[in-house]
Amino acid sequence: MAAPTDHVDVAGSRIAYRSIGDGRPMILLNRMRGTLDTWDPRFLDLLARSHRVITVDFPGVGYSQGTLPPDMSIAASFVDAFATAIVVPRFVVAGWSWGGLVAQALLLEHAERVSHAILIGTNPPGENERPMQPAFLERAFKPVNDFEDDVVLFFEPKSAASRTAAKASHDRIHARPDVAAKIPSTMDGIKAYIEAARGFREDAVGRRQRLTTTRTPILVVCGDNDTSTAGQNWFPLIGKMPNAHFVYFPESGHGPQHQYPELTALHIDAFLRLAVD
Fold first, then answer.
1. Three-class SS state of 19
2. Percent of the chain with pLDDT over 90
3. What is the DSSP code string of 70-115?
4. Measured between alpha carbons, how far is residue 216 from residues 138, 200, 260, 266 in Å?
5. Which among 54, 97, 4, 49 is positioned nearest to 262, based on CA atoms?
6. pLDDT tens-digit map of 3-32
7. What is the enclosing helix (H) or strand (E) of 15?
8. Burial (0-12, 13-18, 19+ Cβ within 10 Å), 39
9. d(C-alpha 39, C-alpha 41), whole Å
10. CATH number at residue 70
11. How far apart are CA 15 and CA 179, in angstroms?
12. Residue 236 carries which DSSP code?
């Protein structure tokens, strides 16, 4: 909560980031419409016990200037340039949702920078069997989301335990004042997300096949009831990705690390200590 917001120049744009903890650097890439303020601080603090945790706002989002890239390769190149600007030659990349798509492009196209990849609440490239559900789409593009929206978007509303975890996470996030003020709220601010995700799904550059050959250690973290990026869409790739680990949390949705911050951090810590290429 007390981490200052720093800035660095990346390709002529003033980019905002925060850094907490010491140790192996880990760059976290956020979801669609996510900002520095929308990560659960409990999750970040737990990661920062053993790692240097760096969160960043994409260009044109949150506290950063510039324009959001409408293409995943360009977004991955931005992350590569950002890491150079803050003098982090090699790092763990952790991407949530849309940020997980960027993380996959990064680990495939800038492999020399990425020691490990953590993919949270996201999907593989190409066409997937389970699409976004209406319940998610009804709320994902509202200018401002309230608590009940967050329950549907990121948790499992049918589960009392998930709703309790949602309230705790929501309170932690909104302990910082004016969280909603920096969240993109217009379709003009959102359409680049959609365009980049569409290109990722079309997969003209063959990323899905390339995931089956990379030796970069990958940890996939999913909720069992994700109405946006269903974790079940990874099933066809299990056994085909040579160095991938899969974790599925029960009674959870699109934000498993916010419902299970302690367990997610423990899985990540063990993965980073023990998984090698």
1. strand
2. 98
3. SSHHHHHHHHHHHHHHTT--SEEEEEETHHHHHHHHHHHHSGGGEE
4. 36, 20, 25, 20
5. 49
6. 999 999 999 999 999 999 999 999 999 999
7. strand 13-20
8. buried
9. 6
10. 3.40.50.1820
11. 18
12. G
Residue 253 lies in a domain: yes
Task: Show the domain range for 54.
Answer: 6-274
Residue type, 35: T
Q: Which residues contact 95 (CB under 8 A, 6 or more apart)?
A: 28, 29, 101, 102, 103, 104, 117, 118, 119, 120, 122
Average pLDDT over residues 78-100: 98
152 part of a folded domain: yes
- The pTM of this model reads 0.98
Rg (CA), the chain: 17
Q: Identify whether 242 is part of a domain.
A: yes
Place of tokens 């994409």: 58
Number of Cα atoms under 13 Å in the Cβ half of residue 124: 27
Which residue has tokens 């998984």?
275
Q: Looking at the chain, how many residues does it have? A: 277
| In-domain check, residue 1 | no
- Can you tell me which residue has the tokens 């960027």? 102
pLDDT in tens, 131-142: 999 999 999 999
CB-CB contact of 106 with 73 (8 Å): no
Residues 262 and 275: their CA atoms lie apart, in Å, by 19
- Identify the bridge partners of residue 20 per DSSP, sorted by sequence position: 53
Alpha helices for the chain (secondary structure H): 41-47, 72-85, 98-109, 134-140, 147-154, 160-173, 187-202, 207-211, 256-259, 261-274
How many folded domains does the chain comprise? 1
Angle, helix 160-173 to helix 147-154, in steps of 10 degrees: 120
pLDDT at residue 257 is higher than 90: yes
Q: Which of 86, 99, 81, 87 is nearest to 38 (CA)?
A: 99
User: Would you place residue 277 in the very low, low, confident or very high pLDDT band (cuts 50, 70, 90)?
Assistant: confident
